[in-house]
C-alpha cells in the first residue's frame, strides 16, 4: 500500500465509520419509517471540522452516544421526562453537539461558523416539522407497526378543531387484549379506563394518547392523536 493510500485510509476510515454508525442509529427502529436521520448532520459536520484523528474519534464517539440517547429509547417504546422527543433531535441535539465540539475545534472561526450553521439548520428543520404537524395526522407514534398476529386496517382519519387523529381496526384472536398489551409495551400508560397516553421530551413534552374501543372479542378500533 502506497503512502498516499495509507494517508487516505487514515483520513477517511474513522469518518466513514462514524457516519455509517450514525445512519444506522438514525434509522432506528428499522421496521418503521426513519424519523431521526437529521441526527446524522452534527456527526457529518464534525467529521469535516475535526483537526486530528484522535480528537475526531473521541468527540465523534460522544456525539454518537448522544444520538443513541436521543433516538433509541423512543424507538424502543420508552417514555418519560428523560426520553427525548422526536422534534428534539432537530434542535436540542445539535445544540448539545455544538457544546461538545467547541472545545476540540482546531480552526476556531471556521468551526464556530459551521456549528452555528448547524444549530440554525436544526431550528429551521424543527420549525418546518412543527408547522407541518399543525394540520397533519399524527405519525405512527409507537402504535404502528401493530403486533404480530393481528390484521391492521387503517381508516381515513379525522381532522378538526386544530387537531388530527388516525385510527386502525385490528382484528385477530383476542385483538383487544393483544392490542392493549402492545400499547403498554410501547410506553403507553393508562390515564382513564378508555385512554392510554405516553409522553416524551427533555424540554417540551410531546404527549400522544390512544383510545382503544372494543368492537368484539376479536376486533378493536384504535384511535390516536397528539394531546
From TrEMBL:
Keyword line: Membrane, Transmembrane, Transmembrane helix
Record carries keyword Transmembrane: yes
Transmembrane segments: 12-30, 36-52, 59-77, 89-105, 112-132
Highest rank taxon of the organism: Bacteria
Protein name: Uncharacterized protein
UniProt source species: Lentzea waywayandensis
Amino acid at each position: 500500500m502506497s503512502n498516499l493510500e495509507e494517508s487516505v485510509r487514515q483520513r477517511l476510515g474513522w469518518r466513514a465509520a462514524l457516519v455509517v454508525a450514525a445512519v444506522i442509529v438514525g434509522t432506528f427502529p428499522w421496521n418503521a419509517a426513519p424519523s431521526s436521520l437529521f441526527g446524522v448532520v452534527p456527526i457529518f459536520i464534525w467529521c469535516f471540522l475535526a483537526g486530528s484523528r484522535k480528537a475526531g474519534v473521541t468527540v465523534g464517539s460522544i456525539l454518537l452516544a448522544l444520538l443513541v440517547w436521543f433516538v433509541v429509547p423512543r424507538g424502543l417504546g420508552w417514555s418519560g421526562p428523560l426520553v427525548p422527543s422526536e422534534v428534539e433531535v432537530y434542535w436540542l441535539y445539535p445544540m448539545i453537539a455544538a457544546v461538545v465540539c467547541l472545545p476540540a475545534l482546531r480552526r476556531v472561526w471556521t468551526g464556530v461558523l459551521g456549528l452555528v450553521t448547524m444549530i440554525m439548520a436544526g431550528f429551521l428543520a424543527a420549525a418546518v416539522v412543527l408547522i407541518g404537524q399543525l394540520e397533519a395526522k399524527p405519525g405512527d407514534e409507537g402504535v404502528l407497526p401493530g403486533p404480530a398476529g393481528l390484521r391492521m386496517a387503517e381508516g381515513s382519519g379525522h381532522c378538526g378543531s386544530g387537531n388530527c387523529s388516525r385510527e386502525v381496526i385490528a382484528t385477530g384472536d383476542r385483538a383487544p387484549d393483544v392490542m392493549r398489551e402492545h400499547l403498554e409495551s410501547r410506553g403507553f400508560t393508562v390515564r382513564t379506563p378508555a385512554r392510554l397516553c405516553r409522553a416524551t421530551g427533555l424540554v417540551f413534552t410531546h404527549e400522544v394518547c390512544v383510545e382503544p374501543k372494543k368492537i368484539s372479542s376479536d376486533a378493536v378500533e384504535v384511535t390516536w392523536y397528539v394531546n
